[in-house]
Amino acid sequence: MDVSLTLYAEHEFNASTFTSRVITSTMSDLHSAITGAIGALKGPLHGGANERVMGVLQEVGSPAEAEPWVRNALASKVRIMGFGHRVYKKGDPRAVYLKTLCRQLAEESGQQDLEEVADVIETIVQDEKGLPPNLDWPSARLYHYLGLEVELYTPLFVLSRVVGWSAHAIEQLDHNRLIRPRSKYVGPGPRAWVPIEQR
Ligand SMILES: CC(C)(COP(=O)(O)OP(=O)(O)OC[C@H]1O[C@@H](n2cnc3c(N)ncnc32)[C@H](O)[C@@H]1OP(=O)(O)O)[C@@H](O)C(=O)NCCC(=O)NCCS
Known about the structure:
This protein is mostly helical.
């Protein structure tokens, strides 16, 4: 648990941290920055992924079912939770580290089958799509081996990342300037306006 909380604590400008920084930059309060960050984090493409990972592992059930499941998921172009990362294209070092701990805990609790299921899926996703696992892939198993309910996975992530969000808020306030990116309109040019009663 200590290792997982440390690994989750801070990760530069991920979506939730960026959210907290934008809110802080408006000179809103820390509570709002953290609340906004939680909203960004709970999405399945960000911190909500490890809950979905556990769902996948439970759905697959046994090592024999893993290969057909993953090949079918890839053929159906389903996004496999726990794989891929915007920044780590060649592998997430945090995932490599947690996998070692998963191995130990699986052995201690006699749940090596789950490690086998994860291995099959990992190998095939890597070979077929070139996508390495991210931290959420082993962390789901780790929490499972620790006897935690799936509903606690995202709150645990929040518990840890609140450190990073708060540090970013403090850093932002040290030299604050409103974060206000521009957008570039690329749609159609001006069109004639038709009064609503003539449409
Ligand atoms: C994290 C994530 C959003 C980063 O995505 P990204 O680097 O911006 O990549 P994109 O969303 O632009 O996807 C690029 C391609 O890889 C594919 N891809 C990326 N992650 C994938 C995944 N987990 N499963 C299957 N395909 C995936 C996309 O479908 C896309 O394929 P295409 O070009 O054929 O359409 C993405 O990898 C993902 O959705 N992962 C699953 C959710 C997850 O584990 N989140 C936790 C992140 S720490």
